[in-house]
Give the backbone structure.
Amino acid sequence: MRITSQQLTSGKGFHLHHTLAYDEVVQFVFSGMKKWNMASLTFYMLNFIFLLSLIYQAYLLLNSNHITWAFFGLSLLFGFLVLPVLLIPVHELIHILAYKVLGAKKIKFGADLSQFIFYVTADRFVTGFRELIFIALLPFFMLSGLLLSLFFVFDAWISFSFLCALFAHGTMCIGDFAMLSFFLENEPSDLLTFDNVDEKKAYFYKRRK
């Protein structure tokens, strides 16, 4: 039976471990990604691979006479600006899909342009570490797979744009990996979290031992 937010806040079996206000997300993300654990290392390793692939492909293109400098610049603009912007709502829709698969009902999309963050919350829906892995990483792997597939299907500058977008989107997923990093640093099997949308806060509770 799923644990409810009321059970967490009752004080029976759980205690409040951390509170995260939505306007403190940027600090939370950078703090989490300074820790060395499986989440942060995976994020840095995969995006480093994406970057190396991008640099290598740029070298091949510019030395093969298959693309002009004008089209190379266009591909950079399309891959680092246009495609990532278009992918933002798709990314968040995949988060919504993950929440729905797990049974969440009150799902909301939000944005804080002052921090340039976009997010999906499920009001008072309690999740543990295993569920969070699914929610957090589903957009990263689905869209990375899609962009890689498009890279191999298309030719010339448009193909390179998909590789640019792969790296851009990968770095944009830093918040998802930061949440996993926080769990890993705080005994993930004992940590549960839920959002209170009205208060614009996320609460983290730990099991009493």
In short: The chain has a mean pLDDT of 91. The beta strands are 14-21, 107-112, 117-122, 191-196, 201-207.
